[in-house]
């Protein structure tokens, strides 16, 4: 991964600016885009930690014993300055239970008998002579089979000790997360684990006991896939935030953008130099894999031109491209994003790229605004008062509610993190905005009456999807004592039904159900005054 200081000092468009391919106006735009990119770079993403020489060796037998002997000998080697205080633990394979934590802060679980509760070893690195499928191949975990000899492994162990510097490229906002602090599903899984499932390095993982998402920057390779799969925007790559990319694309209005990595700049320049289409600009990103539906929609609208994605796409990006093209096809009858994985395909894409003035829309995301809110605002700018039918849209959903069975208990409102479901407190209405829904199903599982059903991965491209519509409503219920509104008629009726047998023959208790909290106390504790 490119270091932060290098990013801050470099102009990623140098190769283009030093060529004679672009007009003075285009060069001025590229310089401004780079300055904007630098303005949004985080200043404090560089981190470091001290890795102590505490090592666990999981293995047994003669080969393991020989290695342990060499590791002990290395403590006397002056070249291994950190090994002077080396601590070594040997755990038998049959005693190994599991491994938690991350590089520098591992917790190795082991037991000395089947009846014993697991014991915990806190170590910095772990060596395995035996393969365990439950253990991920992450920083600080060493499989002996991957090293040429014992010396190579010992050198690597020592190289990892001392001050370890790394970048913390991904920021996490737990307030948006569809997993964070929600109860588990009936099968024990979370309501959203897309980021954890897509991470191959344990840069992001979950604590199922606390129901929390946790980040490990030392293991993160900044691939950006966790950002692209997050439905709410809880994860963000700080050096390429949505606000940063939006601001950069805005400068390029009227130019089609070729989105690519810096390593592909020479190839892109070669194709652009030969192309007859001069209304095209390179758009350099460290990690295009972060691009999802909202990011892509923002780039199309701000640039008001065709986007060309150059390079191989992962499955998540391909799905997002299809979704935005489906939206654009439904409204404007053409694609707005083209794909090119080779120079010849890029050359063909440039012939198709064109200005899309009808797509132009300027919108600056507010601080702490959720990804779905940004998407809703932007998509509505195209839809307005029309109806273009239904399209497939990942990480979206439609809530169907049996209004007759709904008691407006509002548990679904409390469950919804994207504000797709809200309540109108003045008129006792349950409201739903489809464009904000992630289709996570948490509201349906939370509903006590089981009257909610979710249609997943769909978006109705019509005006009503971008405004709150009434899904259920009820008459207000007034306290029979003071006349204050404190509940809905359906909820009181439901409570009376549930407590009818328990309160049978007790008129005072039956009456208390129809009283507000203040009057309920008066009735229960001063029955003579209310007989």
How would you portray this structure in words?
The structure is a single chain. This protein is of the alpha/beta class and 531 residues long. 31% of the residues lie in helices and 24% in strands. It contains 18 helices and 24 strands. The strands form nine sheets. A four-stranded parallel beta sheet has the order 3-2-7-8, covered by helices on one side. Helix 11 links the parallel strand 16 and strand 17. Helix 3 runs antiparallel to helix 8 and helix 9 packs across helix 12. The termini are far apart. The N terminus is likely disordered.
- For the termini, the CA-CA separation is 77 Å
Helix content: 25-40%
What percentage of amino acids are in beta strands? Answer: 15-25%
Order of neighbouring strands in the sheet with most strands: 3-2-7-8
Report the radius of gyration as a whole number of Å: 30 Å
**Tally of extended strands?**
24
Based on CA inertia axes, which overall geometry fits?
Answer: flat
- Which structural category do the helix and sheet elements fall into? alpha/beta
Low-confidence stretches: 1-7
Query: What's the tally of helices?
Result: 18
Mean pLDDT: 92
Main β-sheet, in a few words?
4 strands, parallel
